[in-house]
Amino acid sequence: MTSITPPPSRIYLFRHAAAQKASSGQKDFDRPLSDDGYAAAEIVAEKAIEKNYRPDLVISSTALRCRQTADAIRRAVSPSTEFRYIDELYNATTDTYLEIISSQVTEDSVMLVGHNPVIEHALEALIGHKALVLALPNGFPTAGLAVIDSTSSGWVLADFVTQ
């Protein structure tokens, strides 16, 4: 398992918002957000900005629903915030998510926009099983945003933003 030491000192894990069901012949990768998903992504992005959660870098899966979720953040952050889209986040392992985060050594805060169950597993790897179950007894919801901070004793879940 990859360990992460600051930087970054803050990690945001944003699960994509609710997507439409696949239409006949449509690839899972190409599923767009549902109307409710669009609304949820916008609400969570607005709440995050109200709390001054402003990542230096946003890294998103290239799957359509993740790119659309990342767009909600793009509209809410400063124009200088860098956005990257990475194919490897789709169907990735927990180690891949953690390796991508740990390789960001020049940014103080990094946001990953990705998929479940891996985004939940990445959160669990950072904060531990017990803290995950206490914070999210029903699992990591769509359009959920985990805010994880580095402390002297390790990573802690500082906040969880939902619609």
UniProtKB/TrEMBL annotation:
CDD domains: HP_PGM_like. The keyword Disulfide bond does not apply. It holds the Pfam family His_Phos_1. One of its GO terms (molecular function) is hydrolase activity. SUPFAM superfamilies: Phosphoglycerate mutase-like (SSF53254). Its EC number is 3.1.3.-. SMART domains: PGAM. Signal peptide: none annotated. It comes from the Bacteria. The keyword NAD does not apply. Keywords: Hydrolase. This is Phosphohistidine phosphatase. It comes from Rhizobium leucaenae.
